[in-house]
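Collaborator request, handled under Task 6.
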Amino acid sequence: MVLWQWGLPEPQLNRDVFDDAGRFLGCVDLCYPEQRIAIEYQGRHHEAQSVEDAERIARLRAAGWIVIEVTSELLDDQDRLIQEVREALAARKSHR
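Structure tokens returned to the collaborator:
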């Protein structure tokens, strides 16, 4: 919710992501699919599935996605979080 309050485009929620060949890469928490930017929350409840999370994030990055991993610390620093998302969006815009 913080992202669009700061004027950023609204991301899609809980979206399945596929590579260019149609292979399933994973379901991401938030994303901008056209820009290939995923935002993944890494809360304490994720500790038990950290291996699966790491593998999913590696698959996304290998397929050319920018993945922003949001920890509780980053979520508490909204200015930094917004800046990271803005920078990712700007980087993708400049590559078009």
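The cover message to the collaborator said: "The domain at 2-94 is CATH 3.40.960.10 (Endonuclease; Chain A). The two ends are 27 Å apart (CA to CA). Please let us know whether this matches your experimental observations."
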